[in-house]
Each structure stands twice: as C-alpha cells, then as structure tokens.
Write a structure and sequence with these properties.
Distance between the termini: 17 Å
Radius of gyration: 18 Å
CATH architecture of the largest domain: Orthogonal Bundle
Largest sheet: none
Strand content: under 5%
CATH class of the largest domain: Mainly Alpha
Helix content: 55-70%
Number of helices: 12
Length: about 210
DNA sequence: TGCCAGGCCGGGT
DNA sequence: ACCCGGCATGGC
C-alpha cells in the first residue's frame, strides 16, 4: 500500500470512523440509489426510495413494467425526476433482459467487461457505474466523485484538472484491489467534503489532511 | 435568500 | 477534445 494514500486513509478514518456505506438494504436497492443520487443530496434520494417501497414497486420487474410518467412522479423528491426515471428504466431494462433480475449472475461477470456494459447505458456515467460495481457488487473498483476531486486537488495531491479516469487510476495503481478498503475510502472522502473541505470555504481549517 | 447536493447528456465550438 | 446549458428537489 502506497504510504501517502495509507496516511490519508488513516487520518480520515481516525477523524470520522467507519461510514457504513452503502446505506441500502439490497444490491438492487443500491443500483436504484446510485442513479437517484446523481448530483443530489442523499436525503432526497431516501425519500424517493421510501416512496417506491410504499408503492410496492422497488423490484426489478415492477420498475421494468411501470409507465415512465408514473415512475417519475414517485421519484420526484430526488430531483431531475424526468431524466432519472428514464435512466432508471435504461439500467433496469439491461438488468432484467441480460441477467433475468439476478444480481449474482450480473456480478459474476468480469469486472472490467461489466463496467464497459454499464457505461454503454444512457444515463450511467463512470461514477454511477463504479458505485454499482463497488457498493452493490463488492467489486474492487475505485469510485471518484466531486468530493474526491476537491479534497485531493485542494491538498495538492492530484492535478486540479485531472479527469475521472485519471483520478481513478491514481488510486487503483497505488492500492491493493480491496473492495472493503475502496468502500471506506470513498465514503470518507464524501464525509471530508461535507465537513472540512467544503466547496465555498477554500481553506480547510482543522482539516485532518493538513500538513501531509 | 442563494448555494449546494454522492452526474450525465447533447449540442456547439 | 473540451466547454456549457439543462435537468429539479429540499436543506441549511
């Protein structure tokens, strides 16, 4: 394990402790949440998932069959509901048609080839794909998000303009392929970004990563 | 009140 | 290959 990354992980873990991600009850629920949380506060997503449960349609077949307009009305609280309803349909159609609603079957596939298939779905970008692979499938792929980018660049650990694949490779080239480690690492970056490393506060006061 | 939130797509340069 | 506008709700 790379020394600097080990240090970063240890400091964040010491400051915040285990984050217990992903806060979903099943691999399928994680897949749904991964789409709904795109650029959206998790609290709004939880409300939408609660509504889907309440309506009794938090299942692959139900979402596969429900009319688009009805689905979008149920997920309204998650924002971008018209867009997301379509994206959910795209993902679930793939899941139902290729794997017969069987997550075990889907995640038995080679990680890299499944990643490419997910990325080919309209509405599934790199972060959503990696979130599904890591948090629903326990596959060792590193999830990058706006928080990761901000924390790492603000502390001069990566270039300001590094893109998604660059940042992902930065971590995966330096860490063992350990899904539990990647899980906690990403969740800790999110916690960091919400507490010390906020967007509108350029200086991270009392930040656990100061003086690296 | 305005800004932000666990992105991604499509059209224009 | 970038850059940007659009998508939308709810919390602080």
């Amino acid at each position: 394990m790379n020394k600097k990354l080990d240090d970063i992980f240890r400091r964040m873990f010491a400051a915040f402790g285990p984050q217990h991600w992903w806060p979903g009850e099943s691999p399928f629920e994680v897949m749904v949440g991964a789409v709904l949380t795109q650029n959206t506060n998790w609290g709004n997503v939880e409300r939408a998932i609660g509504r889907l449960k309440q309506e009794g349609i938090l299942s692959p077949r139900a979402i596969y069959e429900i009319p688009l307009s009805l689905l979008s009305s149920y997920i309204q609280s998650a924002g971008y509901y018209n867009i997301k309803a379509g994206r959910l349909k795209n993902l679930i159609s793939f899941f139902v048609e290729e794997y017969e609603t069987d997550t075990e079957k889907m995640f038995a596939e080679d990680t890299e080839s499944l990643r490419q298939k997910l990325l080919a779905i309209k509405g599934i970008g790199p972060e959503t794909a990696d979130s599904i692979l890591l948090y629903a499938g326990h596959k060792p792929t590193f999830v990058v998000d706006a928080y990761t980018q901000r924390v790492m660049s603000r502390h001069l650990l990566i270039a300001e303009d590094a893109d998604y694949e660059e940042i992902r490779a930065f971590f995966m080239d330096r860490l063992p392929p350990d899904a539990a480690l990647f899980n906690e690492f990403h969740a800790l970056f999110v916690k960091m970004g919400k507490t010390y490393c906020k967007k509108n506060i350029p200086l991270c006061q009392d930040c656990p990563l100061n003086g690296l």
